[in-house]
Amino acid sequence: MAVRGVHAKKALAGECANHSCKEGYKCVSERDGRRCELAYCIKRPSVANAELYEPFGLSRDLGRGMIYKCEHGFKLKGKPFAVCRNTGIWKSLITCEKPCEKGWIQNRGHNYCIGPDKKTWNDSKADCISKGSYLVKIDHAAENDWLEKVMIDNNINHMWIGAHDIGHEGSWRWVYDNTTVNYTNWPNNYEHAEGHENCAEMWDKASYRWNDKVCTSVIQYVCHRLTKMLLHVGNSLDTSRMNVCGQFIGPAVNGQVIVIRCKTLPEGQIVKLTSFHTAPEFFHLAEVEVYAV
Length: 293
Hints:
By secondary structure, the chain is mainly beta. It folds into three domains: 19-99, Complement Module, domain 1 (Ribbon); 105-225, Mannose-Binding Protein A, subunit A (Mannose-Binding Protein A, Chain A), CATH 3.10.100; 227-293, no CATH class. Helices cover 11% and strands 32% of the residues. It is built from three helices and 17 strands. It has helices spanning 5-13, 121-130, 141-153; strands at residues 25-30, 33-38, 50-52, 65-70, 75-84, 90-97, 105-107, 110-114, 134-135, 158-164, 173-174, 199-203, 209-213, 220-225, 228-234, 243-249, 270-275. The strands form four sheets. Strands 7, 8, 9, 10, 11, 12, 13 and 14 form an eight-stranded mixed sheet that branches. The chain is elongated, with a radius of gyration of 27 Å. The termini are far apart. The relative contact order is 0.12.
């Protein structure tokens, strides 16, 4: 006897006929019943400053990679894909950045500006702040080596950095976040002058190693600024397992209110804000608010 209409559909569907799975899953019939199986990624991937570049539209199947391209005025960093991982969570491999504006140079996701003239350490600090930046904080040898190359390429003999021991003789700190100077590049067996040389420079005569100098000396300087903050959401604090739901692309200036809009902010998930720098950095947030719109 033939089975027709709705009854035919139910017969073909078997155990899944009257069963529904939550979004992202499909019902699978088995001999002893049914189960829900992960089948696709939900919603759309969050790819800031980029647009889908697929002729047949978005596919949310597990393991599929979707091609994206950066919007006008943004530069591609990474690979131009967003991938639906086998965990059912989108992973964006593409980052679209604004190129450095005139006068700024970029290295490993950091933006730097060599001061246009020579200034005292305090005036250099003030000029960097006016640019929405700070006198450079050097966290590792690779950054120091790169700054050495910048000095050589630009024929700079002396250059202020953000380390000082003003008001706490012998205890060197970074002016940016008032943290202790951990990575250093003083010459071997270096003896610091006491009392009057309280600001640090890089000096060509010391093979571009650090030197303490009178802060009222007038020399070149280098500013460094926050270029990006990323807003992650997920079920853990491990950003490699979280999705980037929004981002801020700098520069940021002192006192600025930064708004990062998330297209998707699932209820109950963890929100984590990070800087884009490759080395640990600190930026000061007066207040953070997360709310649905």
